[in-house]
Amino acid sequence: MNLILATGFLVSRCEGSRVTLADYLPIGMMLVFGIGFATVIMWLSWRIAPNNPTPEKLAPYECGIVPLQEPVQRFPVKFYIVAMLFVIFDVELVFLFAWAVRFESFGWAGIGAMGIFVILLLETLVYVWKRGALDWNVARRGRNRRIVVDSLEDAA
Amino acid sequence: MTGWEIFLTAAIKTVAAFAFLLTLTIILVWFERKTVADLQNRIGPNRAGPWGLLQTVADGAKLLFKESVTPRKVEFGLYIAAPVAALVPALLIFLVVPIGRPFHIGDRLIDLSGTDLNIGLLYILALSSLAVYAVVLAGWSSGSKYPLLGAVRASAQMISYEAAMGLALVPLILFTGTTSLKQIVEIQGGSFGDTFLPAWNVVLIPSFLIFFIAGIAETNRAPFDLVEAESEIVGGYHTEYSGFRFAMFFLAEYINIFNIAAITVTLFLGGWHGPTFGLGAPFDWVLPIFWFLAKSMALVFVFVWVRATLPRMRYDQLMSFGWKRLIPVSLLWIALSTLAIGVRRMGLPWT
Questions:
Q1: Taking the CB of residue A65, how many other CB atoms lie within 10 A of it?
Q2: DSSP letter assigned to residue B203
Q3: Please, which residues bridge with residue B169 across strands?
Q4: Against a cut of 0.90, is the pTM above it?
Q5: Total structural domains in chain B?
Q6: For B188-229, where are the alpha helices, taking DSSP H only?
Q7: CATH superfamily, with its number, for domain A75-156
Q8: ipTM for the predicted complex
Q9: Considering the domain boundaries, does residue B133 fall inside one?
Q10: Residues 79 to 98 of A: which have CB under 8 A from any B CB?
């Protein structure tokens, strides 16, 4: 009942604009519905499924043998670089979207400004590309090969 | 409309969308298994129900009765939240997709979509980013090697292809001037000039291709399924999940496949538009739903076909394909299409 009253309140508050907060109501409902469905079915599964834990069964998965090591906590720095690059492009996207919806009212000046913006970002991409931030494996493989060659030369 | 009516409409739409998606998943899983079986010269599921149609129901029921093992090292709160976090965005995305022509009940016009947001495309991109959280949470909270590796791979892959996906949508917004999915579909009605060709946005071919490829990568499907590459990292992020917790990841994956197919159809392939052959009352809104489903299932078939045909990529190939091919190409395509659309709408800059 409170929900319904709230809906009516939202509609009366937002009357006049094309999209009202009431348009988000199905999203809220689906959120509740989805979480509710998941909770109920996991509870049901917990109630009706057997539960016979053994120490081996509860061990972290390791292809059937006893795990000897903890999972690694450190990762190649490349993953972080990719995450940072993604942020750059995602922010670019936000500006592009906002401009694209109304690009006619900005005219050619807007297109020129966006062109400069995109070229600057393209330059970023070219820079990180040339620096090798987008290469996986290759750099390390090259390093190993040099070490091998050096040691061979030392031996000779 | 009064508060009651709005509430009721929203409730009916939500329940209908939810029921639709769950039923669809049952059919999709069966469809994929059957199609892959055909492509690999096998028979596929054929025991449960006619043509094995009830196989998914049987599998679901089996998983419900299976033990949900909770390994010793998990962070229980996040571990249990991850499947929910995978399922909920998948359910939410579908709400903005219009599945048919709006129809009248009395004097009211009811849209055949959960809701019509004027920020529809942003909403889709935002929620598909949220799907990354489910994968990362599942991988990290499992406290085990393979899930962690799978999760780190997945997050890098999904954010990489998300950038390409968003960039591919910019020409579409330039072309249609809106991010509301309802309006994008309406614009695609009719045909080009006097020809019989439908006025679909698929004329933006590079956008369509980049979006669809990035969509396959976003849903972690073959050939981009390194997230759960069995030969390298066992089950990937859901290695430690069993029982119905695993089933929820499975459910989310198939709903996401349909979402990508449905969104691609809506944005580029005319949504629910299709010939109605001048038929009367019930057909003018039943046929659009049929066309929408037919086009979406055709794209789902492409998903399965790609899976059956292409081998899995290597991780460095995956990342360089995303960053060195898709993103530069989509930036170039943005520049080209901006110039073309600009000249068409506003004339040359020096006139």
A1: 7
A2: G
A3: none
A4: no
A5: 1
A6: 205-218
A7: NADH:ubiquinone/plastoquinone oxidoreductase, chain 3 (1.20.58.1610)
A8: 0.82
A9: yes
A10: 79, 82-83, 85-86, 89-90, 93, 96-97
